[in-house]
Every structure is written in C-alpha cells, then in structure tokens.
Design the sequence.
C-alpha cells in the first residue's frame, strides 16, 4: 500500500464557485504559472506517484456553494486517478481544506472525529497555559486536523490524521519588536496545537491501534531561532517517542549534513530559492514491521525525478511543496 501527503499550493484557485475545474491560460494563484499548466502538472504528479491514498493539504474549498470532496472527485475523474473518492472533515475559513483522496478498491475511509477530556475535538478549543501565568489559554486550529477511521480491504483498521499546523510567519507585524512578539506568540500557539495532536496520538497508540499522522506541520527541528526559547519543535512534540519518520529523525542527529527537504520557496530579497522540511508521514511502532519505505519526490534531490524531464517540471509547476510517500506491506 502506498500512502502520500501532498500540499498542493492554492488548489482551490483551480475551481469556480460550483467546483468546475478551470484549465485555461489565466493566472493561477501559484506565482508565474497559469491554471492550465498547474492543473495538468498536478494531474501528472498524482498519476506518477499512483498512491492508494493521498492526504491533500490545501485542498479545494468548502463554502456556500463549494464542496471539497466534489471538487477533488471531479479532478480525479478528469486526471484518471485510481484514488477517486474523497473524504474531508471540519471545514475552515482559509480556503485551504484537508482531505483524503483514496482508491475505494483498496481501502475505506470515513471522517471519525474524537473528543476526550485530555484532547477535545479538533474543531473545538484546547485549554493550556501558554505564557505561564497559571491561567489556561484557549487554543484553536485555523485548519482542524482531519481524523479518519480507515479499513483496508483485508480488514486491517488504521487511525489516520491529516494535519496542517498554523504557520509561524509574523503576518501583520512591522517593527522588529512586533515581529519578535508575534513570532513568539505564534510559536506558543503552534506548540500547543502539537501537544493537542500528540495527546490524540497517545490515546490511539495506548489502545493498540495503528496510527498514521501525515501532512504539513510547518516546522522541523532547528528551523528557526525561536525554537531555542521553548526547547523543542512542534514536529518533535507530535512524534514524541510514539511515531516514526526517518526524515524528521535525521534532523535530530548531531552534525547532520545532507538534510532532506519537501518544499522550495523563492526569497525576493535575496533572489534565491531556499528549501525546508515541512511535510511528514509519521507512523506508530506497530507499523514498523511492515517494511516501510519513505520517499520525498523532490525534483532536484530524488535522482529519478531529476532525470525525468516531464516529472521534474510537473513537480515545479504543481506546487511549492513536493509529495512524500510511504510504502507499506499492507493490503
């Protein structure tokens, strides 16, 4: 079985208000790429990775007349994907939903949100003292994680969570002091979200359930200087000692040299591109015996992708993130 996570930059912009696919020469929300080029690039990448299930981060919008699942299923039909059915969870106000595209011949998936005293439902509020004033702050997800009950066709149950944690970018801040204050506040909120997510992982693993957490965590060990104030990245908190992802774990090793990355962004000030490891597929210890193999489909770091001109350009035109896949001996 192949599972994938893929942050598709502003996928919502490729659909109109009735979820009809827009494949024309108009500009997409991806800088420098038109809708025809981006749409065909996304389709090419998804056909090439050929996953049984894809956690789509920044999935098309759910709103007054739009439905994430309808848009994704129409796209899958147009692109000829095996993963042709979609499931989503709690909608958000950002036009960047989280959804799973999956092959119904291989597995079944349904939204199955949980709520406990230690980890309330992800569309609710989580009480935690963020600033050590002995008073609980109420933290919310701008993009509530998608909780899924998944069953393979052979009857094996999995718990799956798709996540897109809040970015730490200091939007709206102008002065240096404002940037610092907003960055620290955002870091606190993101770490609280990571704690919330990890508590749900603890509950499922304690119950002996197979667990997969996948998506864009907008963070990684050593990614910025504000991590030093708190001692850990949100990625380390989500993983704890219960989950495994070799890409994330490689950053924890001393003197790491060849660091993996899952995204590529342009800095207009320096006029250079920079890479970051933001996307993860984490699995519980219970799945480690199924010969897991992770792969980042990076157009410049994966030799096969680089050698394939069409795939390399499709990856660059589709999104500023690249898909991460996990293969498991699971049917």
Sequence:
């Amino acid at each position: 079985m192949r599972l994938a996570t893929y942050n598709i930059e502003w996928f919502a912009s490729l659909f109109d208000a009735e979820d009809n696919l827009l494949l024309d020469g108009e500009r997409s929300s991806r800088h420098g790429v038109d809708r025809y080029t981006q749409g065909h690039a996304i389709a090419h990448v998804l056909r090439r990775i050929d996953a049984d299930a894809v956690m789509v981060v920044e999935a098309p919008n759910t709103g007054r007349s739009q439905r994430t699942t309808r848009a994704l299923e129409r796209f899958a039909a147009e692109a000829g994907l095996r993963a042709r059915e979609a499931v989503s969870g709690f909608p958000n106000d950002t036009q960047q939903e989280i959804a799973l595209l999956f092959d119904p011949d291989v597995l079944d998936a349904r939204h199955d949100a949980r709520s406990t005293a230690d980890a309330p439902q992800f569309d609710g509020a989580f009480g935690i003292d963020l600033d050590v004033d002995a008073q609980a702050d109420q933290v919310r997800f701008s993009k509530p994680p998608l909780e899924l009950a998944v069953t393979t066709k052979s009857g094996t149950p999995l718990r799956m969570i798709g996540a897109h944690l809040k970015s730490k970018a200091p939007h709206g801040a102008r002065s240096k002091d404002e940037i610092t204050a907003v960055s620290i506040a955002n870091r606190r909120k993101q770490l609280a979200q990571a704690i919330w997510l990890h508590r749900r992982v603890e509950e499922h693993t304690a119950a002996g359930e197979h667990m997969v957490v996948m998506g864009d965590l907008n963070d990684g060990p050593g990614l910025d200087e504000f991590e030093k104030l708190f001692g850990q990245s949100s990625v380390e908190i989500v993983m704890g000692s219960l989950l495994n992802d070799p890409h994330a774990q490689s950053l924890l090793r001393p003197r790491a040299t060849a660091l993996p990355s899952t995204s590529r962004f342009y800095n207009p000030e320096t006029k250079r591109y920079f890479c970051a490891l933001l996307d993860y597929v984490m699995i519980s210890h219970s799945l480690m015996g199924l010969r897991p193999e992770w792969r980042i489909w990076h157009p410049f770091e994966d030799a096969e992708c680089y050698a394939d001109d069409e795939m390399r350009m499709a990856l660059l035109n589709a999104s500023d993130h690249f898909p991460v896949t996990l293969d498991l001996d699971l049917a």
